[in-house]
Write a structure and sequence with these properties.
Number of strands: 14
Radius of gyration: 21 Å
Bound molecules: 2'-deoxy-thymidine-beta-L-rhamnose
CATH architecture of the largest domain: 3-Layer(aba) Sandwich
Largest sheet: 8 strands, mixed
Strand content: 15-25%
CATH superfamily of the largest domain: Glycogen Phosphorylase B
Number of domains: 2
CATH topology of the largest domain: Rossmann fold
Length: 377
Amino acid sequence: MKARWDIFCSVVDNYGDIGVTWRLARQLVAEQGCAVRLWVDDLRAFERMCPDIDVQVHQQWQEGVDVRYWPGDWPATEAADVVIAAFACQLPPDYMEAMAACERTPLWMNLDYLSAEDWVVGCHGLPSVKFKGVQKYFFFPGFRPGTGGLLREAGLLEQRDTFQRDAAARQQFLQALGVFPAAGARMISLFAYENARLASWLDVLAADGRATHLLVPEGRILGDVQRWLGVDSLSVGDVQQRDALTVQVLPFVRQEQYDRLLWCCDFNAVRGEDSFVRAQWAGRPLLWHIYRQDEDIHLDKLDAFLELYTEGLSPAAKTALVTLWQAWNADGDMAQSWKMLLEHWPEVTAHAEKWALEQGSRTDLATALVQFYVNWI
Ligand code: TRH
């Protein structure tokens, strides 16, 4: 019999919670043969990513996943064999009672936030709290051996390679989005939180000798783009040109399409957790806008990732990349650091490909979760 999995997703803000759990749920079904219920407390956020969702319906099948609305008033529900609380969300108390009442105790895991910090390796897989005999475990995604790895669908890098080699397929994809870049233009995607440093980056792109086509999916950075352009409003489909820079606003697309967008671009600015990982799979240089946390602890996470990611780069290329990322996330000079990075473009591009290959040789997160379960029973 198929193992039954329950994944609980509480949407705090943005799209990371639902983005990660939706991806994981589909992968467990498609590649691991699991029966998965995905409990989501905000179907509107989900709808953005999966337009087929009917937000009025409390139970529906989407791509083989049993999608359930997680209501405040919890219905009596039998616990699954494996229970995942995504990003430390609190399970409904009645569900915890149902877990404790099971004849065969379920495996209960907390799927944690992604971090490249050293301590993650030591904490991955450790027992956490207990509820009436049901033990919870920490499961940490990560970049290093000894962590839970990264979400990566089977054959993803091969699909990417095929797409990146196929100019016609790329052109067709971009044209369907209404994107017609000038020949030889540098393609950049921009998915970020509000960021006051954007203006200085756009200044330098506009003044560059090479054309840039900047693709901006609808979202929080749009206000800064609009201010820089000096226009009253910006909406999907708008295209504006300032010297060498063309700015185009794109709709928020499905995750598979967003992957393709990243694969088309020479450089991707991403944010949060899931888009950050997808940009790494694109095998192209990237810029991470990390999710801000109290007391600036996100900056430690940023440094830890940079330390790991830049291993093998020449000192000058490393400095250029680190300076750019720090400028974007703290208060640095984007213009100067972007110019510095351009001087090392071939090296950072080759490095991004190598990094994706190295990470792609590790066990993916869904497989690691299943292995954890198999070892546990
Ligand atoms: O939306 P985010 O900022 O989510 C964040 C982070 O996950 C952060 O770690 C978390 O603590 C915070 O929310 C609460 O960034 P993220 O993780 O990249 O999620 C965006 C998702 O949206 C990702 O799955 C990719 C997807 N996406 C699309 O499907 N289509 C699009 O057009 C775009 C731009 C993104």
